């Protein structure tokens, strides 16, 4: 193999390694926040977390799509989703809880927020997207790494994964009737998410009344 080529491959591997460290840090943070929340509120806002590093092939084709030269400098400057984390939660309200917890971390800087929950995309896509920056402490000092975080409910995730598959099956040109059906499915997903919150609120209220009744029984007024 050509030496120059091999050196470039090594350079890229080293360059991408730091994104793995950033994901490790975010994953640890999310686990701690979720466990603490469970301990304090007896409810865990996070259902599951999935993370991925964009493949060198996808990074290169994204740069080419943007008409940019394939250099590590351009990657750092223009590609913000090399490290990606997807956080799935039960309720829409949890999305903003998780956002608040991330935003209030001293070492995390939120660089941008796209709220497709409040303002869904025309196709019905909902999720909260953040680009954050987190320091990774290497032997030579801290390096600031960008990570894309997508936060959505299980129902939103169900819809998005199906839509993603269909999108690729039709190479980005989904036929009109299928788009309409997908949009209808998105509306049902949004209805389901609101319904789930109402049920959860009723459960909480019921449990509070039950607790008050128990306290009254033992003679303690709240
Ligand atoms: P990219 O250049 O593709 O990263 O998009 P962008 O810079 O316009 O950012 P945006 O926040 O809109 O989307 C980023 C990511 O969100 C995508 O890579 C997908 O993972 C996800 N996403 C955005 N829109 C959709 C959608 O309509 N359907 C699905 N299934 N996923 C979407
Ligand atoms: Mg992307």
TrEMBL record:
CDD domains: NT_Rel-Spo_like. Its EC number is 2.7.6.5. The keyword Transferase applies. Residues 51-174 form the RelA/SpoT domain. GO terms for molecular function: GTP diphosphokinase activity. SUPFAM superfamilies: Nucleotidyltransferase (SSF81301). Pathway: Purine metabolism; ppGpp biosynthesis; ppGpp from GTP: step 1/2. Keywords: Transferase. It comes from the Bacteria. This is GTP pyrophosphokinase. It comes from Guptibacillus hwajinpoensis.
């Amino acid at each position: 193999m050509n030496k120059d080529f091999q050196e470039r491959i090594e350079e890229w591997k080293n360059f991408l390694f730091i994104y793995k460290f950033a994901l490790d840090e975010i994953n640890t943070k999310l686990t701690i926040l979720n466990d603490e929340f469970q301990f304090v509120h007896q409810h865990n806002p996070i259902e599951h977390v999935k993370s991925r590093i964009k493949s060198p092939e996808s990074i290169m084709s994204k740069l080419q799509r943007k008409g940019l030269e394939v250099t590590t400098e351009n990657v750092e400057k223009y590609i913000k989703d090399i490290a990606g984390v997807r956080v799935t939660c039960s309720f829409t309200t949890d999305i903003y809880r998780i956002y608040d917890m991330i935003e209030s971390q001293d070492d995390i800087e939120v660089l941008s927020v796209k709220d497709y929950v409040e303002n869904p995309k025309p196709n019905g896509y909902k999720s909260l997207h953040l680009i954050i920056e987190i320091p990774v402490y290497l032997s030579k000092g801290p390096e600031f790494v960008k990570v894309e975080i997508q936060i959505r409910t299980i129902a939103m995730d169900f819809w998005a994964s199906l839509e993603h598959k269909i999108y690729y099956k039709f190479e980005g040109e989904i036929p009109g009737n299928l788009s309409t059906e997908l949009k209808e499915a998105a509306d049902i997903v949004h209805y389901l998410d609101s319904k789930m919150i109402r049920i959860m609120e009723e459960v909480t209220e019921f449990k509070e009344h039950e607790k008050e009744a128990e306290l009254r029984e033992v003679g303690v007024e709240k």
